[in-house]
Amino acid sequence: MRNNKARFIAVTAFAIPTALVLWFGGKPNVTANAAPEDAAAVYKAKCAMCHTPAATKFYDPARPEAEQVEAILNGKKGEKPPFMPAYKDKGIDEAGAKALVEYMKGLRSAT
């Protein structure tokens, strides 16, 4: 009886923390705190579906950088959908938005 009790305590002591780590410690969000080196990954994951892989749709690199950063962080309504969603609440900060702007400008100059 004592052996079963010890086994139960040992299994429980291992299983509960393991379950908590698996439940709450999932895959990190790609967009969270997007660093400049992550701009390509963020663009491919979140932006390319609307702006195309070469940033040829719904993007004007001639617009001021501050306006572009504002659109990334707070979103922008256009004349008709699809509208630019806000990414500030999805983990992109100002540095990440600036990195995305630079990355998109680079895509446009490469074409």
Please explain how this structure is put together.
- This protein is mainly α.
- 57% of the residues lie in helices and 0% in strands.
- The chain has four helices and no strands.
- It has helices spanning 2-24, 39-51, 65-74, 94-110.
- Helix 2 (39-51) packs across helix 4 and helix 3 packs across helix 4 (94-110).
- The radius of gyration is 22 Å and the shape is elongated.
- The model is unreliable at 30-34 (pLDDT under 50).
What brief labels describe this structure?
mainly alpha; 57% helix; elongated; 111 residues
Topology:
Blueprint lengths: L1 H23 L14 H13 L13 H10 L19 H17 L1
Share in β-strands: under 5%
Please tell me the overall pLDDT.
Answer: 83
Overall body shape? elongated
Count of helical segments? 4
What's the β-strand tally? 0
First CA to last CA: what distance? Answer: 74 Å
Structural class: mainly alpha
Q: Which radius of gyration do the C-alpha atoms yield?
A: 22 Å
Uncertain ranges: 30-34
Share of helix among residues? 55-70%
What is the element string, with H for helices and E for strands?
A: HHHH
The description of the largest β-sheet is:
none
What's this, in brief?
This protein has 111 residues and is an all-alpha fold. It contains four helices and no strands. Helix 2 crosses helix 4 (94-110) and helix 3 packs across helix 4.
